[in-house]
């Protein structure tokens, strides 16, 4: 599939109206990194660090992790990599951690909630990341943040990791960006101060959508029931874009929908300028973005909303078909 898009691999994802969309890839294993060159991605927008924890039968040691993170940065050859701290719980259970019995795991003890309640692992991971960066820029984001205090506490852990490394005399990152994933509707309504405190936000559309529609992403009975291009959801996302524009917060979108061409086009039309997706999606998404005018598509989205359409999909598909 990558061969099919080889002719546009080194071209920008620039729309007919002149908007440049940053296309990044999602990764989680060292084996994913060669795709960074092959796909034409501008960097890794989401590195899911839990995969390293899930493929072992014991807790990895700090030295192993920092070696691995350093190799990931080496392989990226200066392109940006955004590491997401451990996102476990819910559907991702570590074989060597005591399982919890929760009635609603998706709404339960997971991700940053575990990170803050059992800070040992998070501290080790942050230190491994800082040590791996050593003189290079570092970008880290925390999953599943639902309120300001969680982000503040996580960032304080990052400050402590930096301080520890400084005392040990190790070289610090040349630049540090600490962001949050926006995966719970509560963050869409967080105070402006939150938007200013984070260095960036990344919308985790898979989780955000399941909470927006109250439809479990793992439950076959309901997971396909609500369309991402549902007018209510797009309006909600557009409001987040507007808030980020107002506060000057860099925003990206890293859920699976970023890699679906029709969805990606609509996300760009409502103002997203950075999308992170599986490597094989970069070509198809870039190809469609290069043929469309976002102003036209944006107008269609608003007309669909005004008509009272449930989903923008039929109107968007009509428009996109005309561009192929
Ligand atoms: C998401 O929720 O959209 C996301 C990118 O994180 P994950 O799919 O790993 O939960
Ligand atoms: Mg998520």
UniProtKB/TrEMBL annotation:
Keywords assigned by UniProt, alphabetized: Cytoplasm, Kinase, Magnesium, Metal-binding, Phosphotransferase system, Pyruvate, Sugar transport, Transferase, Transport
GO cellular component: cytoplasm
Source organism superkingdom: Bacteria
Location(s), subcellular: Cytoplasm
Keyword Zinc: no
GO molecular function: kinase activity; metal ion binding; phosphoenolpyruvate-protein phosphotransferase activity
Family as reported in the entry's similarity comment: Belongs to the PEP-utilizing enzyme family.
Protein name: phosphoenolpyruvate--protein phosphotransferase
Organism: Roseovarius nubinhibens (strain ATCC BAA-591 / DSM 15170 / ISM)
Full-sequence portion shown in this chain: 431 to 754 of 754
């Amino acid at each position: 599939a990558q061969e099919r898009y080889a002719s546009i691999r080194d071209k920008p994802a620039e729309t007919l109206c002149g908007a440049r969309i940053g296309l990044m890839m999602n990764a989680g294993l060292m084996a994913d990194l060669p795709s960074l060159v092959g796909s034409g991605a501008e960097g890794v927008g989401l590195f899911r660090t839990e995969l390293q924890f899930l493929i072992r039968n014991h807790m990895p040691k700090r030295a192993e992790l920092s070696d691995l993170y350093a190799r990931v940065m080496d392989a990226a050859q200066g392109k940006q990599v955004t590491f997401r701290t451990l996102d476990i719980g819910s559907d991702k259970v570590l074989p060597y951690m005591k399982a919890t019995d929760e009635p609603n795991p998706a709404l339960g003890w997971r991700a940053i909630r575990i990170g803050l309640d059992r800070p040992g692992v998070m501290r080790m991971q942050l230190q491994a990341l800082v040590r791996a960066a050593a003189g290079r820029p570092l970008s880290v984001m925390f999953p599943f943040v639902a309120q300001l205090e969680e982000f503040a506490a996580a960032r304080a852990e990052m400050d402590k990791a930096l301080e520890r490394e400084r005392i040990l005399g190790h070289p610090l990152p040349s630049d540090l960006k600490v962001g949050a994933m926006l995966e719970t509707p509560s963050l869409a309504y967080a105070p402006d101060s939150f938007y200013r405190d984070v260095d960036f936000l990344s919308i985790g559309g898979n989780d955000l959508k399941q909470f927006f529609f109250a439809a479990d992403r793992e439950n076959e009975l309901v997971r396909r029931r609500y369309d991402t291009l549902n007018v209510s959801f797009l309006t909600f996302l557009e409001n987040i874009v507007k808030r980020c524009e107002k506060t000057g917060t860099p925003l990206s979108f890293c859920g699976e929908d970023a890699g679906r061409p029709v969805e990606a086009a609509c996300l760009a039309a409502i103002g997203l300028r950075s999308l992170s997706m599986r490597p094989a999606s970069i070509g198809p998404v870039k190809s469609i973005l290069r043929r469309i005018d976002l102003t036209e598509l944006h107008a269609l989205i608003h007309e669909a909303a005004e008509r009272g359409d449930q989903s923008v999909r039929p109107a968007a598909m009509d428009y996109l078909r005309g561009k192929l």
